[in-house]
Amino acid sequence: MSERNLSRRRVLRGLTAGATATVIGGTASASDRGVVEESIDPDDVSVTITGSTGCSDGVDPSNWSDGTGTDGGENFDRVDLDDDVEGVSGKDSYEDFTCEGYTVVVPGNSFDVSIDWNDGGFDHHYANVWIDWKQTNDWSEAYETRLMADESDDSDTVTGTVDVPDVAADGLTLARVRLSMYDYKDPDVKAIGEVNDFTVNIWASRECADPSNWPSGAGDYGYENIDRVSIGSQVEKTSDRDGYEDFTCPDKAIFEPGDTFDVEMDWSDGGLDNHYANLYVDWDQNQDWSTATEYVLLDDADDDSVTGSTTVTVPDDAASGPTLARARLSWGQFDEPDADGLGEVNDFTIYVE
């Protein structure tokens, strides 16, 4: 569905979660967080760095102590960081993928690392990833996430979840993924297996929108509710039967003027018909819903097995910085963004670069 050319505007909310991982080394707490963090599409980010890396968007592994495997039976076939960067290798003791792009991460969030590997006919394999979150170029201060323990079957893809600590520093840093035999190995040693290096881009300095700066609006939780909202595949949140959910922090969807992205909503009708859903975005950031842009996701819908969706284009004159987007599920009509009515309201942050 598309944008409605009406003087009225509406709102939206709701998005995702992740798994847990074993993190060894370093400590972090919410008090370490200076500014709130976000989720971003790496295609929307441009970074220029200096040094001998040979590329404009990667770190230089020579700034860290060397670590390598040994050419032998076991090796990585593929390493994937959050579906953003994929390194494919053969029987090599070391592969440098730092100039092959990067994955963007946000303190307080998490991302997946997946590996396909070859056991070479041997048992007892281990895999871990080390990331220098503080960017000290010192592996003793890096954080370790263990992906695989004492595995002997190389037929299955192994996926682990890496938690980004609150103390992660803004900018590019090195992630080292290691396949070993018999035990986990440190990042800076030579041992049986293989080592792959990657670039990670940490964004820790984008503010969130504060919903209290806009007129409030809420649903009346009951029969109908929002189950899930996805914003441009950057932010995804799930909710239950709540009249209102504030998802503005820490995740943020980040775009530039002219960018186009999809918004999706899954919902439950509670056995009733005639449901409406819309999204309001205050592109000029004047905190006035009467000048916000409204996008329609559902128009008089009865079947909650159908996902509501719309395509949004960021206006060329959109103000830079964080603004509020409000997603709304209503019954019987499109409710205004600042109204109280049946259904549910979710708020989230869109950051315009």
Notes on the structure:
- The structure is a single chain.
- This protein is an all-beta fold and 353 residues long.
- 0% of the residues lie in helices and 42% in strands.
- It has two domains: 157 residues, Immunoglobulins (Immunoglobulin-like, Sandwich); 142 residues, Immunoglobulin-like (Sandwich), CATH 2.60.40.
- It is elongated.
- The two termini are 26 Å apart.
- The N terminus is likely disordered.
Shape: elongated
Q: Count the domains.
A: 2
**CATH H-level name of the largest domain... which superfamily?**
Immunoglobulins
Which structural class is indicated by helix and strand composition?
mainly beta
Query: What is the name of the CATH class of the largest domain?
Result: Mainly Beta
User: Beta fraction of the residues?
Assistant: 35-45%
Radius of gyration equals 23 Å
Q: Write down the overall mean pLDDT.
A: 83
| Count of alpha/pi helices | 0
State the helicity in percent bands.
under 10%
**Architecture per CATH nomenclature, i.e. the level-2 architecture of the largest domain:** Sandwich
